[in-house]
């Protein structure tokens, strides 16, 4: 199940308390982002033991910018990340965000 986050404080808690999680930066107005969200949602439904979160860029601009700046990864939307032990282990954007690519990223980082 997908969980929405909106604040830097929530994100900091996740980095501190969770050893591994996915995050999707999602635009509410972009059709490519909508397609990526559907793939992300499919992945989340098939992998309910994995923490899968998202942020809506329009609603959470400070958090979106913080992720880009803190991890030195140019902002794109849509953009998916796999965080492990407080670091970005994998990221992808646009059409590269598929249920399969998300699953492969997690399998590689076991």
Describe this entry's structure for a reader.
It comes from Neobacillus bataviensis LMG 21833. This is General stress protein. Pfam families: BrxC. This protein has 110 residues and is α/β, with parallel strands linked by helices. The protein has a single domain, classed as 3-Layer(aba) Sandwich (Glutaredoxin). It is built from 4 helices and 5 strands; from the N terminus they run βαβαβαββα. Strand 2, helix 2 and strand 3 form a beta-alpha-beta unit. The radius of gyration is 12 Å and the shape is globular.
Output the keywords.
4 helices; 43% helix; 110 residues; Thioredoxin-like_sf; 5-stranded mixed β-sheet; alpha/beta; globular; Glutaredoxin
Strand and helix layout:
Elements: E1 2-4, H1 8-17, E2 20-26, H2 31-46, E3 52-56, H3 61-71, E4 79-84, E5 87-93, H4 99-108
Parallel strand pairs: 1-3, 2-3
Antiparallel strand pairs: 2-4, 4-5
Helix pairs in contact: 2-4
Question: Structural class, from secondary structure content?
Answer: alpha/beta
**Strand order across the largest sheet:** 1-3-2-4-5
Order of helices and strands: EHEHEHEEH
The CATH fourth-level homologous superfamily: Glutaredoxin
Mind summarizing the main beta sheet? Answer: 5 strands, mixed
Tell me the CATH architecture. Answer: 3-Layer(aba) Sandwich
From the N-terminal CA to the C-terminal CA, the straight-line distance is 21 Å
Protein name: General stress protein
InterPro entries: BrxC, Thioredoxin-like_sf
Question: What's this entry about, in short?
Answer:
This is General stress protein. The chain has one domain: 3-Layer(aba) Sandwich (Glutaredoxin), CATH 3.40.30. The protein is built from four helices and five strands, in the order βαβαβαββα.
């Amino acid at each position: 199940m997908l969980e929405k986050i909106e604040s830097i404080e929530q994100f900091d808690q996740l980095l501190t308390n969770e050893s591994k999680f996915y995050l999707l930066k999602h635009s509410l107005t972009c059709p490519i982002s909508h397609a990526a969200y559907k793939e992300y949602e499919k992945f989340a439904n098939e992998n309910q033991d994995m923490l899968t979160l998202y942020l809506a860029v329009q609603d959470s601009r400070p958090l979106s910018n913080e992720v880009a700046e803190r991890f030195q990864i140019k902002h794109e939307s849509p953009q998916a990340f796999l965080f492990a032990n407080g670091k970005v282990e994998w990221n992808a954007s646009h059409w590269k965000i598929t249920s399969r690519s998300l699953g492969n990223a997690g399998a590689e980082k076991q």
